[in-house]
């Protein structure tokens, strides 16, 4: 079976990544950059395989749950990682664990590309200073919004397009040839452990001792209710109810202490 991705598919995914990395849709695109879920959905739509794309992206999402972006920079770019790893996983029919191991180095390379974009934008900042001194509204719009978006499109679109159109089929074909080998086994083992790292980072960033009990509750609920095939929506509703009850009881306790 031939493993390939069409030029139009590569172009649509590359355009999406360029838009997200350039924040062309406003502040909301900042969140789209930080999470690979929407990029995975776009890849699934473009490649006509949304279920598999979302299964793979869900595993990739776990390793980025605890990442923070000081100064707007990430140690790894989730959108770039998902845009390459998910097509490879779909073409080569990889397990989510193996796809995660592929996403990590790709995301790391994407962070270097993002830093290079920052370097280019330093030259645009000179225009911003000039237009600010002149109180030029149109000039500020050009230098703050339009030019950075254009730079992102020029930088990301060809890189992602070439990687997808030329590199992705090669990577997928290579992986399919080593499926039974030690390399594939190593990728799977490493990829299987990385999501745990993402969860651990999340607990470190937002975790408090008094909230650990809720984490344990959710884990054991998932284990106990596994045989019932409870879906994620049901768990989300249960979690919302428990959170609401917690707020009610804690607020009443606070009010009684104040009285």
Automatic annotation (TrEMBL):
Q: What is its main location?
A: membrane
Q: Which keywords appear in this protein's UniProt record, sorted alphabetically? A: Cell membrane, Membrane, Phosphotransferase system, Sugar transport, Transferase, Transmembrane, Transmembrane helix, Transport
The keyword Transmembrane is annotated on this UniProt entry: yes
GO terms assigned for molecular function: transferase activity
Topology with respect to the bilayer? Multi-pass membrane protein
Does the keyword section mention Endoplasmic reticulum? no
- Pfam families from the UniProt entry: EII-Sor (PF03609)
Annotated GO CC locations: plasma membrane
Membrane-spanning residues: 50-67, 98-120, 140-163, 183-204, 211-228, 234-251
Gene Ontology biological process: phosphoenolpyruvate-dependent sugar phosphotransferase system
**Cellular compartment(s):** Cell membrane
Entries under InterPro entries matching the protein: PTS_IIC_man (IPR004700)
State what protein this is by name. Answer: Phosphotransferase system PTS sorbose-specific IIC subunit
Question: Which species is this record about?
Answer: Thermoanaerobacterium thermosaccharolyticum (strain ATCC 7956 / DSM 571 / NCIMB 9385 / NCA 3814 / NCTC 13789 / WDCM 00135 / 2032)
